[in-house]
Amino acid sequence: MSRAALGPALALALVGLALASLAIGDRAIPAAELLGALAGDRASAPASAMIVLDLRLPRVALAALAGAALGAAGAVAQTVMRNPLAEPGLLGINAGAAVAALAGGLWLHGLPATLTPWFAFAGALGMAAAIWGLSWRGGTSSIRIILVGIGLNAMAGAAAAFISLFAEITALQRMQAWLAGSVAQARWETVWPLAAWTLPGLALALAASRELDLLAFGAQTARALGQRAQLAAGLAVALCALLAAAAVAAVGPVAFVGLIAPHLARRLAGPSHLARLPAAAASGALLLMAADLVGRTAIAPTQIPAGLLTTLIGAPFFAWLLWRGRHA
Amino acid sequence: MIGPSASAARFAALLAALGLGLALACLWSLRTGAMPIPPGELVGAIFAPEGSHADVVVRSVRLPRLLTGLIAGAALAAAGAIMQAATNNPLASPGILGVNAGAAFAVVTATLVAPGAAMGTLVWWAFAGAGIAAVAVYGAASAGRGGATPVKLALAGAILSAFIGSLTAAALIFDTGSLDAVRAWTVGSVEGRTMASVAAVAPYAGLGLAAALAFSRQVTTLSLGPEVARQVGQRVGLWRALCAVCVVALAGSAVALAGPVAFVGLMVPHAARLSVGVDYGRILPVSALGGAALVVAADAALRAGLPGRDVPVGVGLAMLGAPVFIALARGRAVGRAEARA
Fold it and tell me: Running DSSP on this structure, what letter comes out for residue A304?
C-alpha cells in the first residue's frame, strides 16, 4: 500500500469497525435503524436507538480513545527509550494505576466509584515519576528505565496483592473486571474526560514530532544536532505517561496495545513521527475496539475483558519480536 | 586476597553463623503465634508428643509452616544462584525470569481442573510449568542479535508473567469461586500446608539441592562465561541443560509448596557472593542456608509484627526484594553484562 493511501485506509477501517461494533451484539441492529439512530432519530425505533446511542456508542468511543492514547504513548515510549520492546504498561504505569485504584476502591469505603479513575491517574503518574527518578544517575539510560520499571512493577504487584488479600471478597470481585482492563462500564461521563485529555495530548505529540525524530537518533546525535536531549526526553516521557495514565484510568490496565500499535505504525508509516504517531493512534484504537468486539461476542453472554485479549495476543507478538531479532 | 586457609576458616565461621541464625529463626517461628508455647513444651511437642493441645498446634500447624518456609527458601535461593551463574546474568532468578510464574500457573490450572489433587501430583504440574516457562523465556530471549542479554531475559520474564497473569485472570472469570481460594497462594505463602504436602515435596527439593551441590564446580566454570568455559574444556550446552533441570526441580518444588515467593532467588545469591567470593562450592550452601533463614525469619516477623492478619510471606519479601533488584539494575554489573553481550 502506498503511504499516501494510508490515512484514508486507516480512517475507513476505523469507521467500518465502529459501525460493526455498534451493529453487532446480543441484539443485532439492522443497518437502517443503526443509521437512523446515529442521525438522531430516537422516535422510529426507540429500543435500537437506546442500545446504539446509550450503550454501544460510549463503549466504542471509549475503546477508540483509550486505544489511540495507548498506541501514541507506546510510540513515544519506544522512541525515547530507543528500544522497540518498551511499552508503557510494562514499565509500571499499569501497575501504579492498579495499586492506587485498589487502595482507593477497597480501603476508602463509601468512596464514589467516579473517583477511581482519578486514583488510577495519580498512581500511574506517580509510578512514572518514580521510575524516571530512580533510573536517574547523572542522566538516564533506556536499560535502567526498563529494569527499574520491572522492579517497581513487581513491588506494586505485591502491594496490590496485599491490598486485595484483606479486602472484602465481593468488593474485590467488583474490581476484578476493571483490573483486567475492560470498557464494559463505559458511560458518557467517562468518555468526555478521556477525550479532553487524549486529544490535546495527541496534538502535542504531533507538534513535537520533529523533536521525537531527533530523539530517535539517540541522545548524542540529538545533542550534536542542537537538541537539549535530556530535557526533550523528559518531556516526552511526561507526555507518554499522561496519555497512558488517562487511558488506564478510564479502562483499567490494558497491556500490549502500546507495544503492538507502534510496531504496526512503523511498518505502515515509516520512520517520520509526523506520519507514525497518527498511524500508531489509529492502530491502537482499532486494536482495542476489535478486542472489545471479540471479547463481548465470542462466548456471549460471558464478557471477556478487552485487556485479557490484548495480553493473549500481545505476549506471543512480543516473543515473535524477540525471535525476529529486531532488537538492536 | 586472603590465603586459602584463612578464607576456608572464614567460610566455616560463616556457615556456623548462618546455621545458628537459621536455628534461632526456626525457634522464633515455632514460638510465634496466637497461642504462647514455652520452649520446653516446643521440644517435647516435636520429639515426644503426648497429644496435648500445644502438641497438636505445634505438630499440625507450626511445624509444617516452618518446614515449608525452610524448603522454599533454600530451594529458591539455590535455584537463583544456579541461574545467575548459568546465564551470566546478575538479574536472573526464578521470579524475574518467569519460572515461578509458569509453575504457579500450572498448579492453579491443576487445582481448577482437578480440585483436591494431592501434592504428589501437583508438584509434577509445577515441574512441567516451570520447565515450559524456563524454555520459553530463555528461548525467546536468546533468539536474535546479541543473545540472552540481562535486559532481554528480564523483559521476556516480565512478559511471560503478564501473559500468565492474564491467563489466570481468564480462568478465574469462569470460576469466580476459586478467586478466594487462589488469591493468597498466588503471591507466595507458607500458611496452611499439611505435613503430608511437605513430605511429598521434600524429596524432590532435597534431590535438586544435592545435585546442585554436586555440580558446584561445573556451575563455577559456567559462571565465568561461555568463552572461558569452552576454553577450559567444558561442554557448555550440556551443563546449562543440567543446570536448567536442577532449577526446574528446585523452583518447581518450592512453588508447589509455597507458591511463587518472589525475590528470594535474586537477593540471597548476591549476598552470598558478596560474602564468600566467586566459588559456587561455597555460594550454593551459603545461599541455601541464607534463603531458608530469610523466608523463615520474614514469615515469623510478619506474624509477630501484624498478629492476626496473616500477611503472606511473599508480599513481605517482594517489598524487601524489589529495592534490591532496583539497586542491582542501577549498578555496574548489569552494564558490564550488557556491554559484553
Answer: P
Average pLDDT, chain A: 82
* Cβ(A292)–Cβ(A306) below 8 Å: yes
Cα dihedral B266/B272/B275/B277 (nearest 10): -100
Which three cell numbers, joined as nine digits, stand for A49?
A: 436507538
CB pairs under 8 A between A and B: 154
- Average pLDDT estimate for B103-123: 84
For residue A85, what pLDDT is reported? 72
Q: Chain A residue closest to B320 (CA)?
A: A155
Apex B154 CA angle, B132 and B172, nearest 5: 55
CA distance A86 to B210: 40
User: Quick check: is B174 in a domain?
Assistant: yes
Are the C-beta atoms of residues B106 and B68 closer than 8 Å to each other? no
Residue B185 lies in a domain: yes
Residue with the larger pLDDT of the pair B254 and B168: B254
Helix (H/G/I), strand (E/B), else coil: B37 = coil
Does the distance separating the beta carbons of A325 and B143 come in below 8 Å? Answer: yes
All cell numbers assigned to A146: 526498563
Structural domains counted in chain A: 1
CATH number, residue B272 = 1.10.3470.10
- Does the residue A187 lie in any domain? yes
Give the number of domains in chain B.
Answer: 1
- Cell 474526560 locates to A193
User: Nearest Cβ partner of B325 from A151, A172, A326?
Assistant: A151
Q: Give the side-chain half-sphere CA count within 13 A for B218.
A: 18
Domain with B73, as residue range(s), is 63-340
Predicted local confidence at residue A111, as pLDDT: 62
3-state secondary structure of A46: helix
